[in-house]
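Protein in question filed below.

…
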Amino acid sequence: MSGVKENDMGTEIERKFLVTGSEWRQADAVRFSQGYLNRDKERTVRVRVAGESATLTVKGINIGAKRAEYEYEIPVSHALELLKICDGVILEKNRHIVVYNGLIWEVDEFLGENKGLVVAEVELESDDQSFDRPEWVGQEVTADPRYFNSNLSTNPYRNWR
């Protein structure tokens, strides 16, 4: 999980890919529940429970792989109450953390309404940073809005077929 970083004023540079293999399954997983309080085109406000912690996150509009992101820890009890007032489907997923060639890959195995979808994200230091992809990383979907978590809450993967 990213957050507000002193050196980048809350900017996130993240690329997203479909997952094709299963080697990532060897990594431990944390259960996530997340919902959206706002899914406006210009900004999203997300509440998330990840294991024993919770966050409230505000994200700006995507410009390629870059966007503003501000994330704050909140009490789990508050997050559970906020999830009750989110609109759309509450996203349920298992997140596996895989370190590959010095980069951290977050592999999200979706459950519930989005079961069958597995995506991997990698956070980069710059737009032009080169990196090696693990064998199990497939097609890039960074710019495809269908794969934005905020959109998966209103148009779940199961409805795509």
User: Anything to note?
Assistant: The chain has two helices and nine strands. Confidence is low (pLDDT under 50) at residues 1-8.
